[in-house]
Design goal:
There is one protein chain. The two termini are 38 Å apart. This protein has 15 helices and 1 strand, in the order H-H-H-H-H-H-H-H-H-H-H-H-H-H-H-E. It has one domain. By secondary structure, it is an all-alpha fold. The chain is 72% helix and 1% strand.
Length: 384
Amino acid sequence: MAQQICQAGRQVEIQIRKCNPEAEGRAGASWEAYGKRDCHFLWGCFPAISRFLQVRHGIDGNVLLSVSKAVSFLAVAASGVLTKNTDSDAEDRRPSKKQLPAGDKRFLILTLWGLLATGRSILNMLSCSYTLAYNIALVESLTPVLAPLLERLFLKTPLPKNIFAMLTLSIFGCIIVAFSQSPYYYAVFGSTESTYNWTMDDMVGLTMQLFSVLCLNLARIVMKTSEGIMSPTEGIQIQNVLTIFTSVIISMSTGGGAMWTKSLGTLFSSLPVVAAFLFLTLGILSGALLFEITVVRHLGPGAYGSLTSIRVPVAVLGSYAILSEPVQNWLEWIGIFIIVVTMAMYVAKRRSEGGGEGDDDGDNGGDDEVGRARTSSSQDIVLM
């Protein structure tokens, strides 16, 4: 009976849309205005929240990732059960037998996808414990420029116009930010307004995040080269399972059971920590991830990616409000401004030229994780 009611309601909704195209237009405008903004806002919170749990409260990153992904796995599974019979697209975009490639090829693609997705998740989480949250977001914001370079290397696709000019400006902005956080800033300007000094930990964190972004884009390339391999939910759950398995092995190898006991004890030790953990797992790694899939299905990856640069100011605000790690000085503000404006101009230009497919950042964590062509069954697969 419940299934029949849901199906009847869906049919009524379709008829209303047919009879009232203005309402359909207003709904589309709402998705455009709010959907992509809210997704990017949530993923922009990821660096500050994960750094808060790891650095401020000493929770091991691999333990945190394992537990978070376990909760995400259950949330995605529950979401799939609840929505299975209520969506006209509820076939979950499962590839048909005719679409499936040969067994060996499919196994290779799934293996590559799983390894790259797992690498993305682990590096993205651990990098936040080594450097400032907005430094992580700045590296993440370079994805729209780095993606076409990797596609050119592996898929021989043509490069967008002005990509090297935009890449140069972005690197210049990154150099300014790094310089403004280093002791050289004080040697040149003789200022003591900053309380943060660049160390090797920052270099480690940024390097990890850069490899995380590379894993993200290589995973997209793997999915782009072979459509119809898996449904979005299957891709997410493969990532969850492999990430849990790998993180548990790493954490047991480096800290053993004592690390798990300490981290789990801290994880549920106070209300702010529990709230941050629930926001990370349910709000970002589960909620934002599933919502992002819906937004990309409705708008397409190009339109969704047009607000990628919003994650940087969100990370800056989170770094200040949650971690008391504000932007240090005027020169650092200039570097951040250059990067954000450059990426926003680049994405807007690509969209106007009809080349916006590669501009989305997906996340998922952010978690960052969307595929490419709108007709592909893999376009909705998200990477934290």
